[in-house]
Amino acid sequence: MRPTEPYEFQIIEWSNQKPDEELCGVLIKQKGTFHALQIANVAADRRTTFAMEEQPFLKAINSGQAWGTWHVHPGPTAVDGPSEPDMDRANAWDLPGCILVRRTMQFRYYIPNGKPTRLYGRPYVPGIFDCYALVRDGLKKYLDYELADLDREKLDGRGGLPDHETMWAPMGWEILLQPKAGRVAMIDFGGHGKVNHLGLLISKHEMLHHVRGQLSRVDFFGSWQRWTLGYLAHPQLEAKVKENRWNRLPVDPQEYNDQTGGASSPVKPPDSLVDASGRPTRVDIPGDPQNPPRRLPVRHPLRDSVPRRPTIGDFRR
After folding, report:
1. Residue 256 pLDDT
2. Cα separation of 263 and 235, whole Å?
């Protein structure tokens, strides 16, 4: 629909100032009138996706005046309407949304549809879709294991998780030193000496995880292994993986069709992820699949940091 409301013209004005970015924000309803509130996009690549700055967004939502959200699809080939990540956000927040499609300068409105959220390509939503939620959902789907939800009030100022004895040991988890399908990698994201990121190992070489401000994805684990302090293992899951002789969790290759690189640029899935025996044949990363690069991607958040290297004292025997 063509813009007619004052807040729509305000969104267009903001977008004209930064035409290549997915600007975003909240629509506030006051005394029967809608107003657009812009919130900073903190996504890694603001050209193809958005992630609202957490505190201003939560403040707007908790005000009780938020009607819905808005964002911009800036690219010349952008989706003319809500993408799957957009619908995932709407369902997570239980809020309607509107999109300015710059290609046509028209607005598209949508409402939540209640569709279950995917594991691959889901958007980052603070407190709802994050690394812990992805590990929890992955364990449930692939190993039928119910991981208790995380009380995120217990995270420290840097997002660090409680220690093993407080959080994991009461649920029967132990720390081991070797990567293996079905185990959870404990990662020191940023080198602060504490576990503040988790990833589910699909195989010894693949990790399903969710980085703040990005879409969930499968990465080549070699790029993350040096930052990993240990691996959480549960006897129930270890026995199930051993009984089924899984070198790789039973992930349907078709699931990768749902993985996207942003609201308007889907990533082509690998031709084949497993051979006839179920062993991985390709890794879902750019470049030669047979010889994946053992270096950090260009935009990797850890590239400019110098983390403390783990010592044997970091692990429980």
Report:
1. 56
2. 39
* Angle formed at CA 227 by CA 238 and CA 202, multiple of 5 degrees: 35
Q: Look up the CATH architecture of domain 6-110.
A: 3-Layer(aba) Sandwich (3.40)
Nearest to 81 by CA among 113, 44, 35: 113
DSSP string, 282-315: --SSSS-TTS---S--TT-TTTT--PPPP-GGGS
Angle 49-124-186 from CA coordinates, rounded to 5°: 130
Q: In this predicted structure, what is the pLDDT of residue 235?
A: 96
Q: Are residues 84 and 258 in contact, defined by beta-carbon separation less than 8 angstroms?
A: yes
Pairing mode, strands 97-101 and 66-73: parallel
Residue, of 34 and 138, whose pLDDT is higher: 138
Tell me the per-residue pLDDT of 43-57, one tens digit each, with 9 for 90 and over. 888 998 899 998 899
Average per-residue pLDDT in the chain? 80
Domain ranges of the chain: 6-110, 131-314
Distance CA 59, CA 315 (A): 39
Q: pLDDT tens-digit profile of 29-39?
A: 887 788 999 99
Look at residue 255 in the predicted model and tell me its pLDDT.
66
Dihedrals phi, psi of 62, to nearest 5 degrees: -75, -10
